Amino acid sequence: MAAKKDTLLNMFIAMFVISVVSGGVLGVVYNATKEPIAAAETAKKTEAIKNVLPEFETLNNINVKSAVENEDADLPFYLAYDANNNFIGAAIETFTNKGFSGNISLMVGILADGTVKNISVLQHAETPGLGSKMSEPSFKDQFNDKNAKSFNFNVKKDGGDVDAITAATISSRAFCDAVNRALLTFENNKGGF
Amino acid sequence: MANWNNLTKGFFRENPILVLLLGCCPTLATTTSAINGLSMGLATTFVLVLSNISISLLKNFIPNKVHIPCYIVVIASFVTVLQLLMQAYVPSIYETLGLFIPLIVVNCIVLGRAEAYACKNSIGASAVDGISMGLGYAMALTILGSIREILGSGSIFGWKFIEGDTILVFVLAPGAFIALGFLISIMNKILKKSN
Q1: Strands A146-147 and A115-123: what pairing?
Q2: Contact B73 A5 (CB under 8 A)
Q3: Is the Cβ–Cβ distance between A151 and A161 less than 8 Å?
Q4: Is residue A72 part of a domain?
């Protein structure tokens, strides 16, 4: 049996039926996967928060306006309290658009006194093998337990204390930019926690 | 015998990348490591098999003049289904492949097989063709990814065996072209000998 003749009606029917069936299938799959996708994203975030903060009892999610000048962006803050409702620190979902390719999003854990506890990379699209090394401990762990009072959160090329990743200065700078955004916003708002 | 030939052709005689040179864009971009190459290959196999089967089913229903738009809609639907499934159940792989999953839609192999094979052959033969081409593609991508990962990052499937400096260029775009060029020349040599 050969293909149907190229009449307008046949073409119309073929395209219509195929589009409707595809649309229907997509709808079903979208609905079926909506919850697992949301769950996977939440799980990833919760995991990141646990990674960057010490043990805590309750978590409170608020949005804080970024303290960087002329910037209209909200940073999600996850405020952690212990059993006696004392403020322990905040996990801040920060970002930068200075990455080598695309935005970088980090979860930065900052203790009540402004010390960086730990950092977790949520999302990036940096060059594999170069900028992607930002998620490896050899780079990101140098920020751990550092305080802005005694540590300059910029790469050494810019006069700071951070060892940049070899052949990925732009990615390293972007990483610092994101961390500094979190630190600055935290400093400006910490009275209210 | 015909089925056996149909199944093996994707690996050597008609390997999509090394012989037909189809679908090179995602090939060059995703093969920065062996695991990325393998996952991209398997993702493409999934789409290729399903699209080959459905296009073979629909071949008598689609008029000639609109066959390309119809094929694209079918292929795009399967890619989106795959993307949603991966996002839901294997988020880590989804993240590394990210942008390249939607690009399977425009991968020449998928449309090429629909056009050259599935619209003329039976459902079974088209499915075998999809498996053969897809796995051949996955094989080539895994080999290419392994070479680039070994030379560029000093590791294989994420297991690091060289500490310190490696040949960075193999992780970057030029390294993909160089490695692919050598692979193709080796493939040509093998095929010439077997003929």
Answers
A1: antiparallel
A2: no
A3: yes
A4: yes
Residue span of the structural domain in which A160 resides: 52-192
Q: Note whether B2 contacts A: Cβ–Cβ < 8 A.
A: no
| Residue A183 placed within a domain | yes
Q: Which residue of A lies nearest to B32 if distances are taken between CA atoms?
A: A128
Partner residue opposite A26 with nearest CB, options B32, B33, B80: B80
Distance CA A17, CA A25 (A): 12
pLDDT in tens, B12-45: 888 888 888 888 888 888 888 888 889 889 999 9
Predicted local distance difference test score (pLDDT) of residue A34? 92
Q: The domain containing residue B89 runs over which residues? A: 2-14+30-194
B54 lies in some domain:
yes
- Whole-angstrom CA distances from A135 to A26, A188, B35, B51 are 34, 27, 18, 37
Token pair 């998620």 is at which residue?
A135
CB atoms within 10 A of CB B88: 19
Q: For chain B, how many structural domains are there in total?
A: 1
Question: What pLDDT sits at residue B1?
Answer: 56
Select from A7, A21, A37 the residue whose CB has the most chain B CBs within 10 Å, as the one to mutate to test that interface: A37
In a domain, A62, yes or no: yes
Torsion of CA B115, B119, B122, B126, to 10 degrees: 30
Tell whether B74 lies on the interface with A, counting CB pairs under 8 A: yes
Out of A175-179, B2-6, B53-57, least confident range = B2-6
Set of chain A residues whose Cβ sits within 8 Å of the Cβ of B100 = none
Question: Using one digit for the tens of pLDDT, what is the confidence trace for B78-109?
Answer: 999 999 998 888 887 787 777 778 878 878 88
pLDDT of residue A2: 56
pTM: 0.76
Distance in Å, alpha carbon of B172 to nearest chain A alpha carbon: 8
Would you say residue A80 lies in a domain?
yes
